[in-house]
Write a structure and sequence with these properties.
By secondary structure, this protein is mainly β. It has no helices and nine strands. The chain is elongated, with a radius of gyration of 19 Å.
Length: 152
Amino acid sequence: MPKAKKKGKKYSAVRELFVQMQINRSNAQAGGSGANVGASAIISVLVTLDGVPVTDLGASAGNQNSVIPLPAGWTLLDGFNVRPGGCDASVTEFGNQGNGVYDIRIVPFANNAACSWLSGEYIYGIQIKTTRTIAGKAISLQGSALGKLTIL
């Protein structure tokens, strides 16, 4: 018996987002602290699916001066290489720049006044998990990236 031909593109239940990440030191420098622009660094993230920018992974939020959560599905991974005496990071702004580009402003952990940037390297990760309906089926989209911030 001949096999019936399947029509259309087949999608698995999980698809990989291509996530690229760069970190700009911006205003961050050794000794900088607090939830303010003067102590912040910016993580820029580009997200694509099959080469097409993914533009709807969160709306811009935050005023750069207080801690905010990342949009649903976003996770900032830190704390796995914190230097002795160093602190985790806090997010103070999320910006959807369009065309699949997102900016995340971070500062040293804002809920502890003693936290400040130390000179050296910090490694951060971004993980994104979301769902979409593609070809009538619920598909899980996920991806991640690592980036290095160097504080002088």
